Structures are given as C-alpha cells and as structure tokens.
Amino acid sequence: MNTKLIQFLETTNNLELELDFLANNFNEKIVFSTSFGIEDQVISHEIFSQNLNNIEVFTLDTGRFFAETYAVWDKTLLQYNKKIKAYYPNTEKVENYVNENGINAFYNTIELRKECCFIRKVAPLGRALKGAKIWITGLRAEQSENRNTLKKIEWDEERQLYKYNPLLNWSTEDVVTYLKKFGVPYNTLHDENFVSIGCAPCTRALKPGEDFRAGRWWWEDKTKKECGLHR
C-alpha cells in the first residue's frame, strides 16, 4: 500500500470517502469480515450502497449463531441484493472435537474454548484471507482494553497484509445514529442489551455496569477474552 493511500485512510475521518478511495486506488484483493454486529452493518452498508464490488464481504459461520444473527444476515442480503461469502469450519475437525470433548466442552477449560474458537473461526479465517492484501474490520477502540491501542491502519506481519479499522474511533452512539439515519438492518439482540454478539452458547446480555466484553465468555478471566481472530 502506498504512502498516499495510507495517509488518506488515516486522516480523512469520512467512512464513505475512505472506502471509495480505497476501492478505486488499490488494485489487489480487499476483503471485509462481518459478524453482523452493528459496526459491521455500518461498513456493509457503505460497501453495498456504493457498489464497491471489488471489496469482498465474507462471514465466518461457526454453526452456533443465534437465530437473530441468521435473520439479520438474511435481511442484509434482501435489502442490498449483494453477496456475502460464507466460510465454514472443517467438518471432520468439528466432529472430532465434539466426539472427544462434548458438545459444550468450551465451558470446561480455557484451552478447550480456544480450541473450539480456532476450529470454528480462526482456521476458516485463514482461508478467507488467502491472497488478500487489505483486511477491513469493524473493530473499535472502546470495545475492550485490548483494542484501545490499535491503529487505524496496521501491518499484520503474520498474515502479510494491512488491517484497516475504519471505525476505530467511533463511539457506540455514533454507530447507532448511523444505523438509524440510513435504515440499516441490525441484530435485534442489541435491543436486549447484547452488545458484542458471537456464538449463542458463549454470549449473554450485559448486566448494569458491566463493560463491553463482559457478555462474551463470561466464565473466564476478562483479560483472556479474545478468540484469536484479532491477535
């Protein structure tokens, strides 16, 4: 990625212009990963409404989503008439994990939880990012302590690509205001105090006073609450 493009993305602070500029000035593979949370729906709306067809939108279907997540996935396809590519975990690895450890083994130890995340999310992500040179994410700094030191554009040495976090400095209020303004479909679990929504067995609604990530893997030490997608 050239210096001019990096500088534009880092300093413009206009999502519509940034994505348009990126799509029209970068000739290598660009992908955007969505889990259908409110942040991701903002980015999907911009990509789809601007017809930025050279940005591939994909999702990692773990097989354990909430019904509401599948519903907003379907609504998004219907509203924009665009494709969202689905990547799935390796069937044999899922079968082996469940048969050896149990259907909900991730509750038992951190190691088993991380193994489940690796099989269902991290490994499929590797396939989704193959050949990509820019990976767009919906990460925001206020989502967790681990994310408030992120940069808007980062070089991922392990994956050999640039990671672009266009909503890094957006607040939750900014995101919600945007969704309402443009009539973007969203996961209705957000109305029930679900904030960060992942797999159904590993996600719950927040209780009053809890931080953003408290509803994910709530039985674990809060310092370990990442699945390995964003190292």
UniProtKB/TrEMBL annotation:
Keyword Iron-sulfur found:
yes
Name the predominant localization. Answer: cytoplasm
Tell me the cofactors it needs: [4Fe-4S] cluster
- Any idea which GO molecular function terms this record carries? phosphoadenylyl-sulfate reductase (thioredoxin) activity
* Location in the cell: Cytoplasm
Task: Note how many cofactor molecules are bound and how.
Answer: Binds 1 [4Fe-4S] cluster per subunit.
Provide the protein name. Answer: Adenosine 5'-phosphosulfate reductase
**Organism whose genome encodes this protein:** Flavobacterium helocola
